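for the recovery benchmark. tokens below, seq after
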């Protein structure tokens, strides 16, 4: 499969640079806006590393590959990047894509610091080669389920597309809610139209519906249909996967996109480093940076610290995960072995449940923290 070339300036041919392979969704059906924020964070951190002298005097450079949310394309990109001699892999937003990349990285002995993907089973077996910054899905989605219970919701519908990621989310919610008196009602979006979803919600007397579905299709039409249905005036629409985080959501839905709680991985207040990086990211993006942009920055910050200590030796990088202690934009980053998680895990980045303020959709309200 042909892999698109990197953006101009992303590669050098003189052999002097320490190179990191970056996996990012930059074209559809990938979540392009998330990819743009992730890449902005990666690039900003690389620029700052180089402004500070690089890696033992050598420049740090990204070799960017567009995964387009395609697991096969991502696996092929990992093979190519390994042949190009990158010291490590970084990035990826989509969980199913990151899982394919992690499997190849593990097989090839190539260190991979996953920035954003949350699927618990990122690899089938425990591996020394892969570490992750984003919280595992079970951790974040249990916090979201706790938010639903605290808000008085017991009959919760999930409008879900077929996917390992959405199925895992449904299972996490059911396992957490059932012992606490909650019920999860599955609505199969491969069979239902947005209008039919409304009828099902009424029939099942659901008080909340969660969008376990892609953006913009079918998540945006579902929201529009539910908001227009007077029978569902009191229902909560939720989006644990974070669809409302990005500006495109507000552009497509306007006021209808507000008051839809989602998970965000930021502290209540950023420290000095986070605030400085946030300002720089806003300038680079031309809009407020999402948590995904901070994940990109932190990924390079960690890899640069490891590479400064060990050079570009892949095995030594992988051996360094348990010794990492890096001040990131959202707290000190350390990796550990966490029960049920097959990779080295930062446990845990701050987790919030937030929504867009109906009175000012460009502003976020913190509803719950975990």
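predicted aa per position
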């Amino acid at each position: 499969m042909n892999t698109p070339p990197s953006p101009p300036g992303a590669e050098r041919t003189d052999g002097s640079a320490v190179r990191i392979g970056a996996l990012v969704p930059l074209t559809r059906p990938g979540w392009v806006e998330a990819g743009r924020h992730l890449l902005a964070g990666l690039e900003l951190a690389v620029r700052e590393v180089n402004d500070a002298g690089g890696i033992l005097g050598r420049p740090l450079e990204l070799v960017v590959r567009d995964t387009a949310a395609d697991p096969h394309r991502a696996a092929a990109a990992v093979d190519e990047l390994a042949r190009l001699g990158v010291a490590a892999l970084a990035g990826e937003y989509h969980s199913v894509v990151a899982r394919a990349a992690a499997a190849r990285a593990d097989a090839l002995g190539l260190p991979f610091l996953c920035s954003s993907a949350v699927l618990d089973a990122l690899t089938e077996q425990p591996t020394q080669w892969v570490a992750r910054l984003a919280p595992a899905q079970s951790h974040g989605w249990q916090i979201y389920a706790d938010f639903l219970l605290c808000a008085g919701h017991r009959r919760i519908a999930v409008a879900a597309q077929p996917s390992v990621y959405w199925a895992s989310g449904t299972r996490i919610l059911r396992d957490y809610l059932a012992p606490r008196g909650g019920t999860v009602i599955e609505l199969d979006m491969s069979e239902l139209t947005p209008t039919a979803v409304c009828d099902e919600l009424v029939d099942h007397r659901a008080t909340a519906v969660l969008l376990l579905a892609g953006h913009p299709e079918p998540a945006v039409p579902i929201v529009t249909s539910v908001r227009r249905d007077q029978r569902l005036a009191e229902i909560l629409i939720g989006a644990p996967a974070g669809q409302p985080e990005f500006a495109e959501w507000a552009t497509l839905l306007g006021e209808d996109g507000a008051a839809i709680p989602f998970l965000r991985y930021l502290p209540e207040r950023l420290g000095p480093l986070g605030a400085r990086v946030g300002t720089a990211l806003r300038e680079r993006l031309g809009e407020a940076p999402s948590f995904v942009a901070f994940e990109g920055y932190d990924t390079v910050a960690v890899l640069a610290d490891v590479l400064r200590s060990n050079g570009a030796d892949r095995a030594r990088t992988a051996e360094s995960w348990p010794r990492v202690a890096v001040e990131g934009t959202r707290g000190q980053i350390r990796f550990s072995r966490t029960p049920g998680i097959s990779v080295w895990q930062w446990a845990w980045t701050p987790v919030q449940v937030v929504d867009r303020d109906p009175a000012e959709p460009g502003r976020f309200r913190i509803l719950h923290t975990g």
